[in-house]
Amino acid sequence: MTLATIEIDQTGFAPQRRARAQVRHTAALAQVITSLALALSIAVAMTAVSIGIARADALAAAAEDPTARVAAAVLLALVLVAIGGLTALLSQAEANSGE
Q1: Distance in angstroms (rounded) separating the CA atoms of residues 37 and 52
Q2: Which uninterrupted H or E stretch holds 65?
Q3: What are phi and psi of 46, to 5 degrees?
Q4: CA dist., res. 56 & res. 79, Å (int)
Q5: What are phi and psi of 2, to 5 degrees?
Q6: 18-59: pLDDT as tens digits
Q7: C-beta of residue 70 within 8 angstroms of C-beta of residue 25
Q8: Confidence class for position 63, pLDDT limits 50, 70, 90
Q9: What is the pTM of this model?
Q10: 61-97 burial string, b = 16+ CB within 10 Å, else e?
Q11: 12: phi > 0 → left, psi -120 to 50 → alpha, else beta; which?
Q12: Using the 8-state DSSP alphabet, how is residue 16 labeled?
């Protein structure tokens, strides 16, 4: 075995490229699953809250007012957008720190 035949492309302590790609793929899959679980739990919570509101007599007057419905829908949309934006920012920050 001479010096010319020794392959030195796999030296060092850094993981191989294939292992790093697999770790990224696994992390991305976990993030997708977590995001879907979060969306599902938000939908369940919204359903439970809407059922509770429907049973409440104190909010019966607000339920008949169309502007109250629009305001509630806008508030809910803003909450969902904020959650999505926060998720995107955290995912981007994590992706940038990994490079």
Answers
A1: 22
A2: none
A3: -65, -40
A4: 23
A5: -100, 170
A6: 666 777 788 888 899 999 999 999 999 988 888 887 776 656
A7: no
A8: low
A9: 0.41
A10: eeeeeeeeeeeeeeeeeeeeeeeeeeeeeeeeeeeee
A11: left
A12: P
